[in-house]
Each structure stands twice: as structure tokens, then as C-alpha cells.
Amino acid sequence: MSTNTASSSSGAAGSADASAPRRNSKRPKYSKFTQQELPACKPILTPKWVISAFLLVSVVFIPIGVASLFASRDVVEIVDRYETECIPPDKRSDKVKYIQTTENTTCSRTLTVPKRMKHPIFVYYQLDNFYQNHRRYVKSRSDAQLKKNSSADDVSSCKPEDMANGKSIVPCGLIAWSLFNDTYSFSRNNQQLNVNKKDISWKSDRENKFGKDVYPTNFQNGTLKGGASLNPLIPLSEQEDLIVWMRTAALPTFRKLYGKIEVDLQANDIIQVILENNYNTYSFNGKKKLVLSTTSWLGGKNDFLGIAYLTVGGLCFVLALTFTVVYLVKPRRLGDPSYLSWNRNPGGR
Amino acid sequence: MAGGRRRKHHFGRIHDSSRGKASERGEQSLIGSPGFSRIVYSNHPECIEASAINYGSNYVSTTKYTLATFFPKSLFEQFRRVANLYFLICAILSFTPLSPYTALSSVLPLVVVIGVTMGKEVLEDWRRKKQDIEMNNRKVQVHHGDGIFDNAKWMDLKVGDIVKVQKDEFFPADLILLSSSYEEAICYVETMNLDGETNLKLKQALDATSNFHEDLSFQNFKAVIKCEDPNANLYTFVGGLQLEERQYPLTPQQLLLRDSKLRNTDFIYGVVIFTGHDTKVMQNSTAPPSKRSKIEKRMDKIVYFLFFVLVVMSFIGSIFFGISTREDLENGRMTRWYLRPDDTTIYYDPKRAPVAAILHFLTALMLYSYLIPISLYVSIEIVKVLQTVFINHDLHMYYEEADKPAHARTSNLNEELGQVDTIFSDKTGTLTCNSMEFIKCSVAGTAYGRGVTEVERALSGSKGLPLVQEVKDEEGQVEDSSEERTSIKGYNFVDERVTNGNWVNEPHADVIQKFLRLLAICHTAIPDVDEETGRISYEAESPDEAAFVIAARELGFEFYERTQTSISLHEFDPISGTKVERSYELLNILEFSSSRKRMSVIVRNKDGKLLLLCKGADSVIFERLAKNGSEFEEKTKEHINEYADAGLRTLVLAYRELDEEEYKEFNRELTEAKNSVSADREEMIEEVGEKIERDLILLGATAVEDKLQNGVPECIDKLAQAGIKIWVLTGDKMETAINIGFACSLLRQGMRQIVISSETPEIKALEKVGDNAAVATEFKAKVLHQISGGLELLATSSENSEALALIIDGKSLACALEDDVKDMFLQLALGCASVICCRSSPKQKALVTRLVKIRTGSTTLAIGDGANDVGMLQEADIGIGISGVEGMQAVMSSDIAIAQFRYLERLLLVHGHWCYRRISSMICYFFYKNIAFGFTLFFFEAYASFSGQTVYNDWYLSLYNVFFTSLPVIALGVFDQDVSSRLCLKFPLLYQEGVQNVLFSWSRILGWAFNGVLSATLIFFFCIRAMEHQAFRKGGEVVGLEILGTTMYTCVVWVVNCQMALSISYFTYIQHLLIWGGAIFWYLFLLAYGAMDPNISTTAYKVFIEACAPAPLYWLLTLFVLFSSLIPYITYAAIQLRFFPMYHQMIQWIRTDGQSDDPEYCHMVRQRSLRTTTVGYTARIEATSKRFQEKPEGH
């Protein structure tokens, strides 16, 4: 009873193929494409494939994970949270009032270098709970105005920081207006550490988004003063703090590059930071942190990627093992039809 | 002239009936009343009334749109779709400050999508327009006064014009026939375009106008026609013609309808009475109901579900947004001062936070619009059109003989083809070729004829067993001769013992002679001698009758002339061995009727002997045999059973010699009965016939094959194996239907047949006595009783798994379809393996279809070829037209046209399965990719205090569905194959995946949605965790909004495209190109877009080239997110494939293992996976295998 019924159906088609096409016949032209017979690879997830794929993933992922982890561990990072400490204890009951009224908010911090830090050492300020990605905030800028002097009056998108005293503000908008204005100066062993503030912004921003002939005018002249003021004599393309600030952060916790220290710091070096605590994060309970960090090829200190790679690599390895064991313990012939779900209940529905 | 004579013969018959109709004067009085107000002044060019009436031109337009209406109408059509309307509202809102993105980026995709759909509409309408132009510019000869006829365009015809139509031309409008080239002013009309019937219909003009035979005679012709207003009824017409102050009634007999064709008549003259859209054919053309597939209906539900999710997400977002906005001002002090909440617009006003939240809700609705795939509808349309192209181009569905490829007339239903649960098939012309072939006979107890029937061929082909016939005659050259013989239509008789005059040497040569003579005489056919070749063809009432006459001719008894009183034959004379002419005096014909089931002729041969020749169904003949005439009865009965089982139609032939006295008595009674005017005239005639048709002497039996189309049994078997139920709905009589049921293995010996018939003796007796109402109730009770009896049988048979067949005739069906019975009927019918409805009217066919469609909710497919199937085709979920010989009516109302029934197998099992799979995977995947994308937006919102800021650049957003992810989906929808066509046919049960809808079940859809959410979660959180705030590359730069957006987007594009690569199972270069191309295109886009002026590219300016590409983190993160998002799916798929494989996956496995060529293994898989099939020859083999095994041993 091993007959093959499939052959019976193809007879008719075969005869159609044989005869030559007639003139003007409606016979479809033969091509592999129209007959849907294009050569194709038809991969299915056979155990062999699955196990090798998982093994391959783990073999690739684990080294990457190790490398990433090492890179992250190589990075030396000093984080100093200062928003509370920089307020005299007696004024801490109303921090907002303190930050808004007090003129001299200088504060001194001491940092210890835990490990040798090779230059360049990047200085960041980190803000917390600050929604630079708020739609109102993100939109509140005028790219045209930033780029060209002639579009200085193009401030329609900048409300309410578009005009002050009847004149347009350059740079306008909430982003520029709320420019971060804490400043830091570092010294080691009473010796000033230079903070290089050049080239801390994206080159394309400096060159193409912020005009060389655009100067801040009428900035921070409104009724309400936001953040930092700008030197009206320096063109925007050189106001790198502004440029950095204007690249809005993606998440409410973010760091921005403040500058670079171009010398190595040795382990156990004591670093004195004199900072001007001007920026109001107290209204919205935001933290402020000063971060000094070196970088690796992978950037700053973040173990996540390395751990993630290791985890997934390990997981894949476990999966590969499990599948292997399962297939070994419970072998079954490929395509054993007794596993077909509708065989077990012949009704089907 | 033989032809002329023949026409006269027809003419006589028809003339009678037409006169009968004309006598219904009642209708004539209607003229002039409302609904019958049309007045046509023919040939009155100067008449004022004529010019005052404007009935519209003969211009016909079938287009959906005109230039002016195109935009409003098609836009309206487009925006009737909820999704499109939603996107339109989004696009409008995007011009307000509410919009989270720029207006252009939301308008453009909408414009593209709407534009493509409208483009398709334009294209389709343009085709119709071209057809109209061709039609409107056809030429016809029109009378221009003074007896001059000149060519004019169809569209310039006016009501009242006199036109002259030549042979084989179409009538340009509805005409009243005035005269023709024939003396009697008759003409023949082919109405194929109207009702699909190919036979010619005779029309005849009024006597009053019949003598206008020349152009010039119309010089002074003037007539006024008053008739009914335009209506859609093809078969009625009421009107009157006023000619020279006399009034003549007009009937449908004078009406020539537009789009029918003049045949066999050189020319006719006619008056135009209805033009253009007033013509009956145009009034009749209703738009076919637009059908939507079940998948699309479910897709709408998913879209609504996504809308719901969208609203929920927006709602949640708005609440959070409202809260955080309100908190921006605390006791008059700004918290998030950098947002300036003290000086803000309504959208962010903390003092009116609820309003801001409501407005934000609108913003969020727009923002999350990426959950709803805008391009889904247009992609599906594109895919379906391409799928249709593949169906149309399939060489396996191209019919060489008629030069007809398959033609999908609508692309809406491709995937529905993969879900068919029940097929309703017409019989004649669909299962059969509508040609009868004389194939076997049994004479004097000996069976002759070695022809092989389709059924036998199917049986032997599938079984691998040698043919029973061949076993018998192994020495003979059996097979090959039958092939060349088929050239004679209606004759497929092969037996060298009988052919070529060899029958004279057979033992019962005298019986054979009588047998053949009876075949040549006992019929009502009319010969038609071709004057050039001398070949004779026959016009018979039914094709089987023609088959008999042809068989007699081929075997040496050539019938060549019929007059009112005689029948003449060229007879083979066994003594001289030559052909002699013999004439028989035709005395009486006792015609066939369905109740008599027999016909007889009484002739007097040249020796003066009176002979009664009779042929009829076995049941009626055997009981009328004389005692000495039943010599061969047992043998013949045995043969008849064999024939019936082989799917042949059998008739028994018998004769009787009459003596003069008896005949005289009979003739007197018959004449009396015929001349009586009482109501039971017919019955009296029957009774007289009954008296004389007795004491017959058996000659033998004939077997005629109602020839099945090629491959029908195989196809039905495959469809049955695929678990599709097949119902035959036919207008034929019960016996024929049962025969065909046997022929195509829907019925078999040993199947319990539940016959519900109105022709039982009790019901007949009832009809004779009772009044109508009583009969009706009684009849219904009877039917009800039979149905409930059937249900009881069904209950018992399900225990012993006996197959049941339900056979029901039209009259009983009418009862069974009444509201209170139909559920029971349906229950019974669904329980039966085969259902055959015979004698069913077109309406009943449609009703049965509707009953099954609505009550079971399963997908129905109707297949038919004739005008009587139109209702059924339109009612069913899918209508398949057979573009055969029976005209175009069925094809025109079908969704897909194929040339042969057997192509249904490929259409359903291969294309249907593929399309179903493709569309359902495509929709699932579409939702997956949009959910994956949309949820990343939502998650980001949670980190942006739900302000409505998007993480992606506007153009990334709008191009997501258009460029980066849509092409691979389209490729999936057009090209993907789970298994090859060969394997689809080899494992028909695969089709059940569609019927049970396993690939588009809610669990699967939700599974994909869940996968989408999972992917989005992994992508988003991995990205933000890996890139949070630290420097993301060596240069110390940190991640900004634009970099995070670009990275996440890269991950989404990769994940979504690779998910696609994982879920398709057919990789051609096209797939490679589109999937990997989609990802590469994203990078190219980034490069190009980033290189544009920052005013255009805004946040994407140089983001890739400057920030992302040089950062290893970007690449490592992409790689990591890609794999980690796919691992859940791969694991799931591997486990599922390994331990819970679906049927297609098993076949894929078999294929991968290279076991698909191992017949034993495949057989095992197939057998173990087969649900018990109850019809088809496979089932038949199972049932009869015992019988088969015993038989060969016997020989």
C-alpha cells in the first residue's frame, strides 16, 4: 500500500507545458518568477540550526561582554553631588529662596581621585529631574535665528522668551534662556587645573547650526532672569556652553560636558573645586552633580552593556545546552506526525 | 435545403406558443397607464411629437466616475475607512500647535497612500472607459429617410430609428423586429450575453410588418409604438404597434435585446425602442455585491482594537501629563521654571491643567498613530493585486484547448480561497462537460464496450491496480484505440466484436440488430445533413439522445431523414453486407416524461409489421417485460448495476411486436385521448400508453457516460482529503444527479442514501386527490418526517462511522428551506458526507448557499458555469465561474474564472493556501512592527513627562511605514511560500490550516502583538540603560535626544526586519534584497538626510556621520538589542517547531530532511494526519478494497 497519489494531479499540467504556445494565445508566459518557482533557500529552525545559532551568539557575545565590561571598569569616574551641600545648613529650609536671592553662592568641594586618571579628563555637570525633553522646551528655539544674523527676528517659535523690551532676543527660547550657569574651577595642591572649554560641543553644531556672525543681543534682559548670561561680544558659534546646552538631552537625568582637564590626575590626588552654585534646580527638586570622568573606547563608565552582553551570551549558552539535552534525552524523529495538534482531537475545531 | 426545413419544424412549435401568449389581451389594456407610457414614433422625422419626446441617447457609460465626480466620489470612498478618516483628522490637526510633529510629515504618507489607491481606481475605471468607447463607437446601419440606410455609431442612435442589423452583429439597442431576410420574418438570436444560454432563440415579427424586405420599402413606413417603460425584466414585454391606423399587439416575441446577437439570419430590420441605459440589459446590470474576506473583517476588528489601545495609551498619558502640568505651579511658585509655566499657552497651562490634559489627549492620539499602520490597507491592496497576477499567470491553470488562463476578476478574495469549508458545485458544464458519450452496452446478456470511464480511470490511477476491464482482456489492444476514437463527439464505444459490422458474427446477432435499430428509430432527434461532406449531425433534445443516434450511426444504422410520418435509415444489411436504405412508417410517439421514465415509438416496417420500440429506466422496463422476453434479465441487471457504479447513465431497451387489431384499438383510444379537452388529457394519454407498453421483450441496456471533465474525480478527491465539503446543486433530475454523484465518487455503493423526494407514489397519490393547501401541508409533514428520519439515521451512523449521503429534490428543498424546518435540514445536511440537491432552481441554489453561509459562518465557495448559477455565485463568499461553453453570464458575476473544474484544486490548495498564509502573516507582522514602533514612542513619553515630544525625528516617523519596513512585508505577502506547490498538493490536509484559521486566530494575533510589545520594551530599555548619561564615545560627548532617537530607530529597523527574515520561509533574492535593503536603506537615508541643510534635517543633521557611526557603542548596542530582542522569538519558535509543530512545519521538516521523496514515509505522514474522509475515491478505495481484492482472483 505504498502508492503515491500525488502524481495523478500533475498530469494535466504536464500536457499543457508540452505544446508550443500558439500565436496570439492567452497562454501565460513561462518564467520562474510568474510560476513562483524562483530558487529560494527555505530555512527552518532545525535543532542543529538553533543550537549552533545559540552557541554562536554566546561565543560572540561573551567576549564582547568581557571587553565592554573591562572598558567600563577602566574608566575612572568621580561623582560629587552638591546641590544640598553647597547651601549653608541654616538656609536649607528654603533652598529656592536661597538660590534666587543670595548673590554670592560660592561653594567649595573636595574630591579625591580614587585611581590614576589619564587625560583628557572630562568634566560634566549632571542634572536630575530636569525635563529638557519636554515638548514645550524642545520646541522653544529658533534654528534660523541661531544660524543667520539676518533671521534675528525669526522668534515666533520661542514664546514666551521671544521678545524683551520690544526687541527680539538672540538666542531666543526657553532652552537658551535656561542655560546652566554653575561654574567650576579646579585646583590640585593649590595649583590651578586648567579646564579647557574648547571643542566640547559637536563640530557640526559649531560650524553649521550656530552662526559666526550671530551675537547674543538683548539676552536675559526680560523681567525674569533664567540661567546664564552670554558675552554679547562672542559669536554664538564660540559660545560652546550654550551649544552644548542647546542639544537637548533625551532623558530627565543627563550630563552635559563642561570642559576637559588636559592633565593626568594621580591616585589619591586631592582636588579642590570652587563652584558657583547659581542654577536653580531646587524648585523642581533636581539634583546637581559634578562629574569627572575619563573615557574608554566605549565611552564613559556604564557596566550595563558589558553585563548585558555577558548575560545574553550566557543565556544563549544555557539555551543551547538545554536544547541539546532535551534533544538527546527526548529524541524524536523529525516530523513525527503524532505530535500534530489536530490529530489528537479529530474534530479539529 | 435541410436547414430551412429544420427551421420550419422549430418554427411551427414556437409559433404555437407565441400565439398563445399574444392572446392574453389583458396586458394590452395596460398600455398608456402609468408604467406603460412610452410612445415611439418610428420614421416620423417631421413629426412634432416625436421631437418633443427625448428619451436619451444610446450612449452607454459603465464607468464608476466621471471627470467631475472622480475626486469627491473616490475621496469619499477612501475616507469611509475608519483608519483613513483617522489619519485625515490627524493630518488636519497636525497644522495646529497640538501636533507633536510637523504637518508635512503626517500629510505626506496620507497623500501617498490615498494617491496610490486612487491611482488604482483611475486605472480600473480607465479600462472600463475604453470598453465603453469601443462599444459606443460600433457601427450600425440606420435609416436616414427615403429608404437609404447609412452607417452610424451606436451612441448616435435615437429612439424611433430604424436599423438594419446584419448576420452575426450585436443589436445596438432594444429593438422591435419588423422583418428579416426570411419570408416568415423570423430570426434567430443568441442571447449568450444576457442569460448565458448558447442555444438560438427564435423571434418573429408581426405579420403586418413582415413584408418589408428591402431598404427602399421603408421610404414610406410610418409606425407608432406604445409600450411599457424601461424595466429590467428580460422576459416580458407589453406594447402595441400602430401601423396605418391599425393596432397590433407586441409581445416579447418581437423584442430583440441589446447585446444579443443575430445568428443564422442574413439581416433584420427593427425599430429602436429603448436606448442606452433604458435597455433591458443595462437595467439589469446591477453592480455585483462587493465581497470582503473574513480576514479583512477580522483585520478591521484588530484595527479597532488598536484604536482602543491607542485611546487607552493616550488617556493614561494625558492623566500623567495633566498631573505634572498642574504641579508646575505650586502655590504660585514655579517648580519647573525652565518651562515658564507662568506665561504659557493653553496647552501647558498649569492653572487649567484639565483643559491642557484634554488637548494633550488629542496630541497623544496623533503621536501614537504609529500603532495604526497607515500603509496596511494600501499594502494589502498592492499585495492582493500582485497575488492575482500570479493566479492569472499560473500555467497549471491555463486551459490549452480553449486558450483560457485563470482570471481573477477581483483581488479581494485571494485569502478567502484558503479558507473554503463548503463548495457548492453546479453539475452540468461544471463537473461534466455537458456531453454524453455512448460507451457501453449490454445486449442479449453480453456486455460490450471497453471504453474506460473517468471514474474507472480515477480509481485505477490512484489505486495502482490494473483496470478491471484490462484484466479481463489482457490480450486485446485496449487502451490506445480509445484515444483516437474520442474525436467523434458523443461516441466512445470500443469493442471490436461489435464495431465495423462484426456484430453479425456474435451469437445473438439478431438481437443486436434489433437493438441497434431501436437506437436509430426510438428518439425525437432531427438529422442535419451537411451538404458538402454528407456528414450527418443531429439536433436532439438532450445530449444523451444524440449520443444514441450517433452510436447507431457509427455502428451501421444511420438515421438520415425524418418526416412527419416516416423515419429513414441507412442500414447495414448482414446478409448482403452492404448499406441499404430503409424507411419506417412512424405511427406514434409516446414521449418521455419524468413520471413515465420511458419513451416509445410505434413504427411499421417495410414488411408491414408493427413494432413498438421502447427505451426507459430499468425500474419501469423490467416490470413491463413479457414472460418470454426476460431471458437476459438477470445478466442485464447485473451489468446495469456495474454501469451505474461506474457512473454511467443506463437505459433499458425493449420492443414488442403488435398485431394490427391491437394497434387499431390503441390508436383509436389515443386519438380520443388526444382530442379530449378535459383537464386530465395528459393522464388519459399516459393511461393509453400504459396499456400498450407491456409484454415487452428485453433487448439490452445502454450505458452513456455523462462525461466528466478531465480530472474531476481526482480534484474532488483532493478537495475531500483537504477536508472540504462538496455539495452538488443541480437542476438535473435525480437519477442523473445520483449518477454523477457516483461518477465523481461523491456517492458510492454501501453509502447510506437518505433520499428526500417529492416523487414518491404516496405524494403523487396525494396530489391527485387533495386540494392544494392540504397537499402542501401534507407534503411538508412528509418532508419533515423524512428529515427527522434522516437525523435519527445520522445519530446511529455516527456511532458506526457509516457515511451518509443526502439527496433531495427541488420541491422538497423548497419545504426544507422554510424557516421552521431549515435548521433541522441544515443539521442533517452537515452531518452527511455528501449532499446532492437536484431539480433545484437558481433561487434555491442561492438560498441553500445563503443558509449554509449564514448559519454555519463558514466560508462557502460556489462554482458554476451557467446563468442559473449566478445567484449562487453572488451569494457565496467566493463565486467561481467556469469560463466554458455556456456563455459569459456566470463568469461576469464570478469573482474568479477558471476554465476547468479541476483547476479548483490548484486554485484552492495552492493559491488559496498561499494567499491565506501570506495575508494573515502579513497582517500579523504589520501589527507587530507597528506595535513595536509605537510602544517605543509611548515608553519614551514616560520619560518625557508625557509632554508629547517624540524621540524620533519627524521624518523617521513618517517614513517608517513607507520605506524602511513596508517593502519586505509586501514581499512576504506576494512571494512567501511555506511549502512548495507540489507539497501543497501532496498533503491536501494542509488546507485545513486555512479552514480552521489557525494562522489568524486571536491567540496568534495577540501573540504577535505581545511580541511587538516585548520587542519595544527590550529595545527601549536596553537603549536608555546603555546610553543613559555617561559619555557614549571616546570624545566624551554625551547622548542627546537626537542620538538616542537615531540609535533606537536603528534598533527598531533591524529588529523588525530581522524578525521578518525569521518568520518567512522562502528566501529568494527578492526577499534578501528587500529585507537587507530595507536596513541598508535606512543608513543611506541617514547619510543623505543628515547631509542636507540643517534647516531641513534639523535634529538629524550629521547625526550619523558625526555622532553615531564613529561610536563603537552605537554598533555594539545595535547588535546587542537586535539579538536579545529576537532570542525570545527564536526560543519560542524552536520549541514550538520541535514539540508542537503545525502541519506546514511538519511538511517543511520532511522536506528539509529530504524525505519528501520517500513515498513510504510521506504516506505514513499523510495517513496519520488524515481525518477520515468520507467522500472521494480515496474513501471509495478504502470502502471497496475488499471487493477489489476478491475480484481479480476470480478471473
Features:
heterodimer; A: 349 residues; alpha+beta; 2 domains; four-stranded antiparallel sheet; extended; disordered N terminus; disordered C terminus; B: 1195 residues; Calcium-transporting ATPase, cytoplasmic transduction domain A; Rossmann fold; 5 domains; nine-stranded mixed sheet; 42 helices; globular; Phospholipid-transporting ATPase (chain B); membrane (chain B); ATPase_P-typ_P_site (chain B); EC 7.6.2.1 (chain B); translocase (chain B)
What does this protein structure show overall?
The complex is a heterodimer of chains A (349) and B (1195). The model of chain A is unreliable at 1-22 and 339-349 (pLDDT under 50). In chain A, a hairpin with a 2-residue loop joins strand 6 (183-188) and strand 7. Chain A has helices spanning 11-18, 47-74, 95-101, 135-139, 143-147, 174-177, 203-209, 240-246, 304-329, 341-344, and strands at residues 77-81, 106-112, 121-127, 163-164, 167-168, 183-188, 191-193, 195-196, 254-261, 270-276, 288-293. In chain A, 29% of the residues lie in helices and 16% in strands. The longest helix of chain A is centred in the first third of the chain and has 28 residues, at 47-74. Chain A folds into two domains: 43-75 and 300-349; 76-294, no CATH class. A five-stranded antiparallel beta sheet of chain A has the order 1-11-3-9-8. A four-stranded antiparallel beta sheet of chain A has the order 2-10-6-7, with no helix packed on it. In chain A, strands 4-5 form a two-stranded antiparallel sheet. Chain A has 349 residues and is an alpha+beta fold. Chain A is extended, with a radius of gyration of 33 Å. With 1195 residues, chain B is an alpha+beta fold. The longest helix of chain B is centred in the last third of the chain and has 40 residues, at 903-942. Helices cover 48% and strands 16% of the residues of chain B. In chain B, the strands form seven sheets. Chain B has a nine-stranded mixed beta sheet, sandwiched between helices. A nine-stranded antiparallel beta sheet of chain B has the order 19-18-28-27-26-25-24-23-22, sandwiched between helices. The chains are: A alpha+beta (349), B alpha+beta (1195).
